[in-house]
Specification:
The protein is α+β, with helices and mostly antiparallel strands. Helix content is 18%, strand content 46%. It has three helices and eleven strands.
């Protein structure tokens, strides 16, 4: 009986509605080998979870949820598996959530403070990244792997 109760609690906890602390409307541009998107989206986050819901002409077309796993329409996967399939295998596991939240990537290497944010230029055998965060936008471009993220406030 106690196993049935435990299973019941776990099942409904996993399907429960997440309570996000902030919700922001953003202009989102994503270009990667498997995701191409340019329109409005909602970026929601709490201390432990991030969700990007993307819309085209008022209809939700994709949702990316980041917690201990990354979930997309096709299912959930580990962060490293997501990077291999959707971005690039050499990226650190936390890169997607850091980009969504405007945090420094690659442990802050090559970070230069700007007037209202920072910039990072990371070049090695696997990547050629320009990453810029300011008070109104986030820009990530990996020239070598042809990946772009632009997240901009709507005004």
């Amino acid at each position: 009986m106690k196993y049935i109760f435990l299973s019941f609690v776990l099942l409904f906890n996993a399907c429960s509605v997440k309570n996000y602390e902030t919700t922001q409307t953003k202009i989102i541009i994503i270009k990667s080998p498997k995701i191409k998107f340019a329109d409005i989206g909602y970026l929601r986050n709490s201390e432990k979870s991030i969700e990007l819901e993307m819309f085209v002409a008022g209809h939700a077309v994709e949702k990316i949820s980041v917690n201990h796993l990354i979930c997309v329409r096709e299912g959930c996967m580990s962060k490293s598996t997501f990077n291999q399939e959707y971005l690039h295998h050499s990226y650190p596991d936390d890169i997607l959530q850091h980009i969504f939240l405007g945090y420094k990537i690659y442990d802050g290497i090559a970070s230069v403070k700007t007037l209202d944010g920072f910039e990072q230029n990371i070049v090695n055998s696997d990547v050629d990244i320009k990453y810029k965060v300011d008070s109104e936008s986030i820009f990530f471009k990996d020239r070598k792997n042809k990946i772009i993220f632009k997240i901009k406030d709507t005004k």
